[in-house]
Amino acid sequence: MNKDEHDHKHCLELFEKLSEYLDNELDEVTCQGIEKHVKECVPCFVCLQTLKRTIDLCKQTENRSVPKDFSEKLKEAIQNMPKSPSAR
After folding, report:
1. Residues 17-46: pLDDT tens digits?
2. Is 29 exposed, middle or buried (0-12, 13-18, 19+ CB in 10 A)?
């Protein structure tokens, strides 16, 4: 498939399922479709490999608490964020 024929909409649909795919939460047919697409689509292959590597790095990271003042500032910043139009 050359880049002019590439269906980016399909890539976006696949991207939305990658987390479930990696967690083995999808049916076999869907998994096979993702695996077939990733073999043919370099950007999706790279995205999947990057996500796998990110997960591996997170698993290796030591669990540590954030400083209390940072946690309080973050909570305050989240509470003060403008609401999105769909959340109104």
Report:
1. 998 999 999 999 999 999 999 999 999 999
2. exposed
